[in-house]
Amino acid sequence: MPDKSFNAFKIAQEQFDKVADYLGLDQATRDLLRNPLREYHFLIPVRMDDGSVKVFQGFRVQHNDARGPAKGGVRFHPQETIDTVKALAMWMTWKCSVVDIPLGGGKGGVVCDPHNLSEREQENLCRGWVRQVAYNIGPYLDVPAPDVMTSGQHMVWMMDEFEKIHNGRFPGVITGKPQGMGGSLGRTEATGYGVVYVLREALSEMGIDIRKTKAAFQGFGNVSRHAVELYSQYGGVPLCVSCWDQEEQKAFTYLKEDGIDLQELLKITNRFGEIDKDEARKLGYEVLPGDAWIEQDVDILVPAALEHQITGENASRISPRVKIVVEGANGPTTPDADLILQERGIFVIPDFLANAGGVTCSYFEQVQCNMNYFWTKDEVLSKLDTKMTEAYLQVSALARERKLYMRDAAYVIAIQRVVEACKWRGWI
Ligand code: GLU
Questions:
Q1: Residue of 359, 361, 380, 384 best suited for mutating to test ligand 1, as the one with most atoms within 8 Å of CB
Q2: Which of 170, 185, 200 is a domain's end point?
C-alpha cells in the first residue's frame, strides 16, 4: 500500500516540470498544465442495508479539456486521496494526447472498499456519486469510465442515474459499459491487449522474438489478465502473476516455471479476483511473497496493478536479464526508480502510452454510441492495434532521434499537442 510520503501528484508534476524545462514552456502554460482546471470534492450519503447512513468522500477532477471532453475512470479504493486522483487526471490528459484521440483528462474516485459493500450499497454509492456531479459530467463535457475496483455494472448504474436526472438516453456519458448497454466489443480486452501491442513493437524494434521471451506480471485485474492472454497467444511465456489476497491483506506471486495458465487460474479465482492459494499449490504453482514478481529471471516486467510499485528501494532487485518494463498500471515507477532503469539501459514503455488501449477503446465506444452503430470485435481490435502501434512508433522514433528516455519522449509529444490546443483556444 502507498506509504504516507508518496504523493502521486508531486511525481506527475515533477515529470511535467522536467519536460516543460526541456520544451522551454512559458510560466502561464506551466501554471495552466501543472494543475487541474477543475476539481470537485463532495460527500455521498448512502443508505446501508442495515438502515444506517454512511457518508463517503467522492472526487472528480478535470485536469484539461482543451483537446476535447475530459475522460477518465472512477476508482473505488480505501486509500484514495485527492492527490492521487489529481495525478491520474493529469496522466489521462497526456494519455489521450499521446494516442491522439480528441479527449482531455479527468479522473474520479470514492474512498471506499467495495469488498465490504453489498451490491445494493454499491449501486447507491454509484448513483450518489453521479448526483453530485450530474451537471459537471456529460457526453460533451466529461466522460467517466471504469478504473480500479469499478466495473461495467457500476457504469450502467451511473449512466442510469444521469439519464434520470437529464431525462433522456445518453449512452455517450460513460464508457466501459457492458455489451447491449452501449458497450463496445473489445473494451474489456483493450487495455491489456494494448500493453502487448506496444510490447510487440518494442521487441520487434530490438530484434527479439517474442516466443523466446519470459515475462513477470504484477496484478491480476482486467489489465494484467488480458495482457497475459495476448502475450501467451503471441507465444511468450508468462512466468508469474501477483494477486491481492483480501483475507491476508497482502499480495502473493503465483509462479510456474513453464508458464502460468490463465484459464486454469481463473477457475480458482473468486468474484473479487483473488486466487485461491491452496488450489493454486495443488495445481503446481509456487506461491511466493507479493513482491517476488520483480526479482524473477525474465526479459519483461509488466507492472499492471497500482501506482508506486517500482521504487528506489526495490529497483536494484530487478534481474540483469530484464530488457523491457511495460507499465500496464498508472504511475507504477517512481522518479528515483526511473533513474535506475535509465542507467541500467532498461527500455521503459511508459504508463500513459502503454496502457492507453483502454481509453482508446473508450473513445471508440463513445463514437459508436453517438452513431448508434456498433462495430465487430475484429474491427475494434484492429483499429486499436493501428492506434497503439502508430503512437508507439512516433514516441520511439522521437526518443531515438533526440536521445530521450521513452517517458520523456512520450511527454514531449503529449504536452506539445495539449499546448497547441490551449493556444488555438486562446487560453495561453
Ligand atoms: N481507467 C482507464 C485509464 O486509466 C480508462 C479510462 C477511460 O476509458 O476513460 O486509462
A1: 359
A2: 185
